[in-house]
Amino acid sequence: MNDASGLNATPAFSHRVLGPNSDESIIAALRAELKSAASQNRPVVVGAARHSMGGQSLARNGAAITFAAPKCEPDRAAGVYRVQAGTRWHEAIQVMDPLGHSPAVMQSNSDFGIASTFSVGAHGWAVPYGPFGSTVRSIRLMLADGSIMSCSRSENAELFSMAMGGYGLVGIVLDLDIDVVPNTFMRPSYERMSADALSERFVRRLSDPAVKMMYGRLNVARADFFTEALLVSYRVDPTPAGGLPPVARHGALTGLTRSVYRSQIGSESAKRARWLAETQGAPRLGSGVTTRNTLLNEPVANLGASPAARTDILHEYFVPPARFNAFLAACREIIPKAKAEFLNVTLRSVAQDDMSVLSYATTDRIAAVMSFSQVMTAEGEADMLLMTEALIERVATLGGAYYLPYRLHARVDQFHRVYAGAARFTQRKRHYDPGLLFRNALWDNYLAA
What we know:
The protein is an alpha+beta fold. Helix content is 30%, strand content 25%.
């Protein structure tokens, strides 16, 4: 098996896909898998899309389980939806959209499993919210012994806080009750500014209750690297008499995005052209008004496939707004020296998260999601490792954090400096899973010792 990077081919003892079956049959199958793996002292890993990049959803010679059982049931009176672990976001949106609902928070692409979003502590670009887990009411969690626990902020709260952003290391999420908000028309506004002015404007827009979704971008062409910024804010637009159109599976600029995005590899002129397309072309091409669900329903495929012998590598850093300009200075110093092609950075808001034991947002943060194109060679790996280590070091000194689902290039000491709850997480994981049945590369590299 492998992950999204294509750089982590890992032998598995078994791989079972749990398709659309009854809850009872899925639970029985999971218990049988856990019992068999425990008797052979094999690790168990559970996943859906497996879009992580460092083996967080892989275990050497382990029993792999993939959920592929979509199920999404609304409780309209309570304003929540119960989703089964294998449900992808686009499948949930198809159920919510005709009922006038939209996920309160989800990842920026709709291909991923909803339980996986919870397990990696992912966030979105709706404001003002923390990670997706902040909108989860409760979960059902299967422990290593096959028992099932209902977990929430008031019931088995410790397990809830460990499962949120816990990478499947304390149990298997069976289903989740999640918050929704009304689906609405959304209208964007575009603000272009110097990069050093962005953090102040970013915080100001967060205080505007009319702003419901927001993201930022920075230019990535080397001649003007991280000197200019774009801030896009979405506000609710009146619903026309005819009502909202059905959700689409792509945005209005998908074709332009895909073609221009890939042309940036090895081309500074293409990077400049993309910046012009985003800062001047998009605002002029139309109103940009669309439904909230359509904005959220973008598949990863819209960014196109990597060229042969290359792979896309993601980084993400979470920076206190007051230190954001120092972060920009660090990026200007470190990233241009690397050989990897820097394709994009998207900036989002993440509100403080006091629930997850492995929280990356111990205060309000600006999240910088970065995309690189790397050659799949030993030289490419060494180059990426050195750059990542340097960026993490600078972010740590700024009181920030890095995101865990990507390449395992942080040093062990960096991991423990950034994730102060790691020691507690490890101790309590051993309490709930004394046989260490749930293990993956994240555990092996940073927590096992």
